Amino acid sequence: MxxxxxxxxxxxxxxxxxxxxxxxxxxxxxxxxxxxxTGNYTLTVRRVVEALQGEDVWLLVxxxxxxxxxxxxxxxxxxxxxxxxxxxxxxxxxxxxxRELVLPQLSATGxxxxxxxxxxxxxxxxxxxxxxxxxxxxxxGRHAVREERAVRFPMSDRLQMAIMWTAxxxxxxxxxxxxxxxxxxxxIDAAAITAIVLALFAGMPWLPLTTHRGLLVYSVLxxxxxxxxxxxxxxxxxxxxxxxxxxxxxxxxxxxxxIVSVDVAGSTPLLSSSVNPSDFKVELLIDRCxxxxxCVLVCxxxxxxxxxxxxxxxxxxxANCILCGACIxxxxxxxxxxxxxxxxxxxxxxxxxxxxNLLGKRTVTVPD
Length: 368
Known about the structure:
By secondary structure, the protein is an alpha/beta fold. It has helices at residues 3-11, 42-51, 69-74, 80-90, 113-120, 134-139, 155-181, 183-202, 213-238, 243-261, 294-298, 326-330, 348-353, and strands spanning 22-26, 35-39, 57-62, 100-103, 123-126, 280-284, 304-307, 312-315, 336-340, 345-346. It has three domains: 3-149, Rossmann fold (3-Layer(aba) Sandwich), CATH 3.40.50; 155-267, no CATH class; 280-353, Alpha-Beta Plaits (2-Layer Sandwich).
């Protein structure tokens, strides 16, 4: 992948970008080589291919409508039907002697593993969250360790998300301000907003994004102040320091910071929405649990663990839960469900028919 392709895909990752579907050989796979499934979002496919360099693997790209696996599965654009269709149309069964399939863990919100197995006769295993862990996972005999099942959001990923935010916003801001201030001041305003977004995502682990709203306001004001100071410094260097330019810069910093921070928590893979909080939680019906532990294998936030003494699952980190619903979708005994604060419940059958909205919240309707 060229550097230009990487920048393009990162900047426009908020848009669907389809790659070809079908079966693709990585390395020199034979009839015993593993079969790994992914969606047809271009950036995802490229990263999976890069991660598997040096391995001999069959890569089966299912139709996720050009959306990344997690968003596609949560939004109903990548389901078990798409995986089943990919298995059948690719004729992978004619290429290998086994019937072992590796599904991306983050597809568990929409791809029902049991339905894939029942319809095709293939045995599906959940792969790791991150493509970079695939080689080690395969060498271990398709076994992911605990650390590989948890979503990570390191600095590199946070900065990529910052680029995704600024890519559409900054050019629009520049075009709006150009007639008001001229091209150079408008460019400086855009640079100030870019600095704010980069600072927001870089400092995310230390900002109170999901706590008291007052603290969030202080964070927003601090970020706006940082961008304003950065812009003023650029005005001074460029010799463009005028009252009008400074006023426009201040307004742009306040408005821009407000836009990007309105629900920055909900736009991350680690936090739930702060402006649209859910009033329900995951409930475990311990009497139904048989210890299948599919929920443990698919939880991206390490909320559940298997208690080997009683052969039951336990919810040990409820604060980590982002309500993705993967555990509910995959439980073969329907031992998990959503419970509202007022006592109403949402059963697994409803969750399997429900998809996440743009804020990452499950849009469920429960009769009174």
